[in-house]
Hints:
The chain is α+β, with helices and mostly antiparallel strands. The protein has two helices and twelve strands; from the N terminus they run αβββββββββββαβ. It has helices at about 5-45, 165; strands spanning about 50-55, 60-65, 70-75, 85-90, 95-105, 120-125, 125-130, 135, 140, 150-155, 160, 170-180. The strands form two sheets. Strands 3, 4, 5, 6, 7, 8, 10 and 11 form an eight-stranded antiparallel beta sheet that branches.
Amino acid sequence: MSFAKRAEGCGGIVELKKSSFSFMLRSIEFSIAVVLVFLACIVLFSAPVPFLVVTNADTTLLTYPILPGQFIVTRYIHSVELTPVEDVFVARGGVLWQWEERVKSHNAGLPVAPSRNGRFLARNGWFVFQGGRAHFPMIHYRVGTAELGANELLLPPSIMLKLYERVPQERLRLFVEMSPLVGKNGGSFVVK
């Protein structure tokens, strides 16, 4: 047998070993990828997520997932001043933090000065009171009618619930509940 034929034979053996090694490497990479995807699913579906929960006296009306930094806005017409009022909240650490309050005019129970830790701005026709570090484990929210209050709840990204039509003259409770995303019936609003 000539040297060239023996070299070809050796090349085939070397090639065979290289091929089985790359197959084994691909198998290990695939196994690691499957394990990582499985662990990511476990974390995503079992990690606590903040949900805005809205209840009345005996029924949970809404459970809605809120991402960090997303705003929850309550909007109503002030009963004495008859001016629009918007309260902006952020869910953080299981509580609702008041980010800002916007009003179109002052008087009769509406803010006239920023809180000690806040600031006052005039923006797009609104008087804006930002900051203040006010936070609430639960907000009791009285819903009026179309004539008195016209209460609305704005949720991200662009959902507006006209509470005065859905649950007129109800006393609602708004709070944050930390819960895994799996098994939550998020986004539904129960109407009487």
